[in-house]
Design brief:
By secondary structure, the chain is mostly helical. The protein has two domains: 12-125, no CATH class; 128-230, no CATH class. 54% of the residues lie in helices and 6% in strands. It has twelve helices and three strands. The protein has helices at residues 12-28, 31-43, 53-60, 66-72, 101-105, 107-125, 127-134, 138-147, 155-163, 174-184, 193-203, 223-230; strands spanning 77-80, 86-89, 94-98. A three-stranded mixed beta sheet has the order 1-3-2, with helices on one face. It is globular. Bound molecules: zinc ion.
């Protein structure tokens, strides 16, 4: 899929007013009434609030280590005219996120969606993680396999893997796994230790494990094998 390429223009003052309205509506309306409001707004293709890209990067990465925030501050982050969707496009090294995510999925969800896409950017632009991607995610695959027997001691992670991640079928691949872990696990202690050590530099600024950069055989590209290695032993 080609990247969208037309940035949605927003006037600052109505956008800020829309932010107040949206935050208020999310707080006071019952879920049914909020869903009804969203359907009426969509009849007019209305976006109450669209966070400008640079501000969304800051909000999505609140609490992440300074190195991660500094890297992502360089990411071109665009908003475009659509109700939902978006992604990271490696060829342009940029993120496009639909303008409707705040209005139609919520102010919390937009930060999570942005965070996920930003960790695709990290994977592609951080030299050490990019090197692992270059060898087929060999180290990431090996820490996942090593963790398999430990998963039952980490119930939040286990439930996320089995109840959420693996349910995505073909989408449950190693690239998506990479972006999902820092987005969904802000406390590395909720992860099996080998996986925690791999992601901790991104989650809480811990140092890289000493063996992080050592050569490993290429990870191959077998989706079924990756998914089997994720399932609790
Ligand atoms: Zn993704």
């Amino acid at each position: 899929m080609p990247a969208p390429h037309v940035e949605l223009a927003r006037a600052a003052v109505p956008n800020e007013m829309g932010h107040v309205v949206l935050a208020f509506a999310e707080r006071v309306l019952a879920p049914r009434d909020l869903a009804g409001l969203r359907e009426r707004l969509w009849l007019g293709r209305t976006y109450l609030y669209v966070t400008p890209g640079p501000r969304l990067i800051e909000r999505a990465l609140e609490g992440f280590p300074p190195e991660v925030r500094a890297l992502c501050a360089r990411c071109p982050f665009h908003r475009y005219d659509a109700r939902g969707g978006g992604g990271f496009w490696p060829d342009g090294n940029e993120i496009w996120l639909a303008a409707g995510v705040e209005t139609y999925e919520g102010l919390r969800q937009v930060r999570l969606s942005a965070c996920h896409e930003l960790f695709h950017f990290v994977c592609w632009n951080h030299p050490r993680y990019r090197a692992d991607e270059g060898r087929g995610f060999a180290r990431l695959r090996s820490v996942v396999a090593e963790s398999r027997a430990l998963v039952d001691a980490f119930p939040r992670y286990r439930d996320w893997v089995t109840g959420s991640f693996l349910r995505q079928g073909d989408h449950a691949n190693v690239v998506e796994y990479f972006a999902d872990i820092p987005t969904n696990f802000r406390d590395a202690h909720q992860l099996p230790p080998p996986i925690a050590a791999h992601f901790a530099p991104l989650i809480d600024g811990s140092p890289f494990p000493s063996e992080f950069d050592t050569a490993l055989a290429d990870g191959g590209n077998d989706l079924a094998a990756f998914q089997r290695s994720l399932a609790p032993a």
